[in-house]
Automatic annotation (TrEMBL), chain A:
Domain CheW-like: from-to ranges: 438-587
EC numbers: 2.7.13.3
Reported function: Involved in the transmission of sensory signals from the chemoreceptors to the flagellar motors. CheA is autophosphorylated; it can transfer its phosphate group to either CheB or CheY.
Residue numbers spanned by region Disordered: 128-183
Ranges of residues in domain HPt: 1-104
Enzyme class: transferase
Identification of the protein by name: Chemotaxis protein CheA
GO cellular component, one term: cytoplasm
Source organism (scientific name): Fulvivirga marina
CDD domains listed in its UniProt record: HPT
Automatic annotation (TrEMBL), chain B:
Gene Ontology biological process terms, A to Z: chemotaxis; signal transduction
Name of the protein: Purine-binding chemotaxis protein CheW
GO cellular component, one term: cytosol
Native species: Fulvivirga marina
One Pfam family hit: CheW
Family annotation (PANTHER family): CHEMOTAXIS PROTEIN CHEW (PTHR22617:SF23), CHEMOTAXIS SENSOR HISTIDINE KINASE-RELATED (PTHR22617)
All copies of domain CheW-like, residue ranges: 19-166
InterPro entries linked to this entry: CheW (IPR039315), CheW-like_dom_sf (IPR036061), CheW-lke_dom (IPR002545)
Classification via SUPFAM superfamilies: CheW-like
Length: 595, 177
């Protein structure tokens, strides 16, 4: 379905709902004409409807809603007294409004000008009444109203007589056709949208996931007996089903982004800064649950950008920047991922400051800190307990945060990168999967167990020999595309006793030492947050789309494994958690260097 | 929370009045019993996939009717015999007790088909003085059921599992510190 059609559906769903609400409210109002609440509500709803309709380009609805809105505005200001005749006009007008909304879908012609003109006449006479007899408004109204009403409802020609100015002959013609159809208005209109709790969608997605796994299992079992085409229909239908369910769960990022205006305003106020927010690509679609998971991270990044990034008004003026800081939230869809950029035009991340902090906190030695490039240094802000804010404010600087952002992203297989220029600004770029369900993975074997590694992390696969690997201190390195990268034998990591993770020296050399020189080693090159490393595995198998299931207790805090999937043969296949692996290796590097 | 569970179990026992049903299985030479409400089903042990960095008595995970369930070796956990590898488990044809509560789903390996046993609630001796090994928490032992020619050790399987959890949490804390 095209975007436009989808918007139209959303508009329709809302409009139908609004119309129902209007019907309810006006009935309520009729019972208690003195109550102001329904009038206010109707005024508000028609106003919204007018806005939405004109946004969608439905001019007739917008114009009509506008007139109704004006009427209720008059009622609200007590300029127009409610009596039976007014009510019948109002009911009629709301029915017509409903028809108009309905006609967006059906394309049916709705005769609306008569009632519209009538309302306009009421309004007009109100104004005239006000001008001519300002001392007696009520009377003026009641004088004009019955006349308009009576005539317009009963006869068409009278209608024409009363409102000759704005709508000329064609109005009359159409009017004459429309009026004698009261029956049709009695129809109850059902919305085309159904609201479903997310829980039910989750359940549906799980079931579809299991179906796909079961399909793969059956196909795997019978692969030898049957031709390849035997299952193609099953394959296609179940895949379509899967993507349809995934599609249902997609929501626009605007759903979340629009909430940030307020957060930016409040945060900026707290910090005595002036910040404007621009949203881009708000129609980008993403799985609702993923959006929920990253919402806190985005809030954090935004608060951080305002707290740390954007300078105070004085500083900005001194730097020759406009006093108002600028924050941009941008979402782009890229194959099966969504990239969300949070950019500010603030002071940028000060690599030097981070360098000092890292040394001060003992994470790096001075020599190392010098060797790290600025880009690498900036990544340190994602380490737990790292904060460069000089003063701790409510908003930022408690040393919690950036590592939490990273963790949230890790949990859904997303990555974050920073692009910062001192004095110009910072962009945090989040790359997150658009959907949770299906993941492209690379299957590999280690000690006769099949593991999966998400393709979002893999860069390349290599086949090298022992001579290409060098021992450096307690670790191993090899070269890839001219760069020296760390290398681990996954076997060594998995064999670490589960209590003691990293501190045994030489543990990462174990398999290397045992490997013979002739043996070709299969290496998967993985990258994570702009760091690259190689993982040596026993055997590379194939690429496969999998449905990942989360681990239940007591494995849910298992670090090396993110989740599992079920293979065609019914065996369980663990999905490697690349983020943890990187943390393990790189933190190990830090701690080793510390000692 | 643990106390609650315990008392709930007790209550269950008391409420059912005179008789209650146990699932009885052999660990080593002894008979162990679990209240029937804690067991969901007994299945042939499916292929188990070892998970890295888990306690040795956790043999890995298996696919039981589309659910991914952790499998543990109680004989190893209770120190009845030395541990065996996951590969060895996969080669034997064992049975797995699927244990389920609102929060837990686990499998426990048993070598023989378990029996059901209906006993008189009064046959449970709850206050048992066991020879305690200081280092082993035997809190999961709820009592001893004495029958003619048979002695069944009644265990609260959730207690065994929560201990496991507690251990993990402790471990995680050690790691981060």
């Amino acid at each position: 379905m095209s975007k436009e059609n989808e918007y139209r559906e959303i508009f329709l769903a809302e409009a139908v709902e609004s119309h129902e609400e209007l019907n309810r409210l006006i009935t309520e109002l009729e019972k208690k004409p003195d109550d102001n609440k329904p009038v206010d509500a109707i005024f508000r709803i028609t106003h919204t409807l007018k806005g939405n309709a004109s946004g969608m380009g439905f001019k007739t609805i917008a114009d009509f809603a506008h007139v109704v809105e004006d009427i209720f505005s008059a009622i609200r200001e007590k300029k127009l007294a409610l009596d039976e005749q007014i009510f019948s006009s109002l009911f009629k007008s709301i029915d017509v409004l409903g028809d108009l909304i309905h006609s967006v879908k059906t394309g049916a012609k709705v005769q609306y000008r008569g009632i519209k003109t009538k309302l306009e006449v009421i309004l007009k006479s109100l104004k005239e009444g006000e001008q001519s007899a300002p001392e007696d408004n009520e009377e003026a109204n009641s004088n004009t109203d019955p006349s308009t009403k009576d005539h317009s409802i009963t006869t068409v020609s009278n209608q024409n007589r009363i409102a000759p100015s704005d709508h000329a002959a064609n109005t009359v013609q159409k009017e004459s056709m429309s009026e004698p159809e009261p029956e049709e208005n009695a129809k109850i209109i059902f919305s085309d949208h159904v609201q479903v709790p997310v829980r039910k969608l989750d359940n549906l997605l799980n079931l579809v996931g299991e179906l796909v796994i079961e399909r793969d299992r059956i196909i795997g079992l019978n692969a030898e007996n049957m031709g390849g085409n035997e299952y193609s229909r099953l394959n296609r239908i179940s895949s379509d089903l899967q993507y349809s369910v995934m599609d249902v769960r997609l929501v626009q990022v605007s759903f979340l982004f629009n909430k940030f205006h307020r957060i930016v305003r409040d945060t900026a106020n707290q910090e005595n800064k002036s910040v404007s927010l621009t949203l881009k690509g708000t129609e980008t679609e993403i799985d609702r649950n993923i959006l929920q998971i990253i919402s806190d991270s985005l809030i954090h990044l935004i608060r951080n950008a305002i707290g740390h990034g954007i300078e105070s008004i004085v500083d900005r003026k001194n730097a020759g920047k406009p006093a108002e800081g600028h924050l941009t939230l941008k979402a782009i869809s890229e194959s099966d991922a969504v990239i969300i950029d949070v950019s500010d035009d603030g002071r940028g991340v000060d690599a030097q400051k981070i360098r000092e902090k890292a040394i001060q906190k003992g994470i790096l030695t001075e020599a190392e800190a010098k060797n790290f490039s600025d880009d690498d240094i900036v990544l340190m802000i994602f380490e737990p307990g790292f904060s460069t804010a000089d003063n701790i404010s409510e908003i930022s600087g408690r040393g919690v945060g950036m590592d939490v952002v990273k963790k949230a992203l890790d949990s859904i297989g997303g990555t974050i990168s920073i692009n910062t220029h001192k004095g110009v600004g910072t962009t945090f770029s989040l790359r997150i999967p658009a959907s949770m369900a299906v993941k492209g993975t690379l299957l590999f074997e280690l000690k006769n167990i099949t593991y999966a590694i998400p393709l979002s992390y893999t860069e390349a696969v290599l086949s090298i020999h022992k001579k290409d690997i060098y021992k450096v201190s307690n670790g191993l390195v090899t070269s890839h595309l001219g760069k020296t990268i760390p290398l681990v034998f996954l076997k060594d990591i998995f064999e670490l006793s589960y209590a003691n993770l990293v501190n045994e020296s030489k543990i990462l050399h174990k398999t290397y030492d045992r490997t013979s020189a002739e043996k070709a080693l299969n290496i998967v090159i993985v990258s994570y947050n702009s760091r690259v490393m190689g993982i040596a595995v026993d055997k590379l198998l194939q690429q496969k789309e999998i449905v990942e299931k989360p681990l239940s207790k007591p494995f849910d805090n298992s670090k090396m494994i993110n989740g599992v999937t079920i293979l065609g043969n019914g065996h369980v296949c663990p999905v490697l958690n690349v983020a943890t692996l990187f943390n393990l290796i790189f933190i190990r590097n830090y701690t080793n260097k510390k000692n | 929370m643990q106390d609650k569970k315990e008392s709930k179990l007790k209550q269950e026992m008391e409420h059912t009045g005179e008789s209650l049903q146990l699932i009885v299985f052999k660990l080593g030479e002894e008979d162990y019993g679990i209240h029937i409400s804690q067991i969901k089903e007994v299945v042939l042990t499916p292929n188990i996939t070892k998970m890295p960095q888990t306690p040795p008595y956790v043999k890995g995970v298996a696919n039981i009717r589309g659910n991914i369930i952790g499998i543990m070796d109680l004989e190893e956990k209770f120190g009845i015999r030395p541990g065996i590898t996951t590969d060895e488990v996969n080669q034997r044809s064992n049975y797995t007790l699927v244990i389920e509560s609102d929060t837990f789903k686990m499998g426990a390996l048993v070598t023989e088909v378990p029996n059901t046993l209906t006993i008189d609630a009064s046959a449970i001796e709850e206050e048992v003085d066991l020879v305690h090994d200081k280092n082993v928490d035997t809190g999961y032992i709820k009592g001893i059921v004495k029958l003619e020619g048979q002695l069944v050790i009644l265990i609260d399987i959730f207690r065994v599992l929560t201990e496991d959890e507690a251990e993990k949490i402790e471990l995680a804390q050690n790691e981060t510190s």
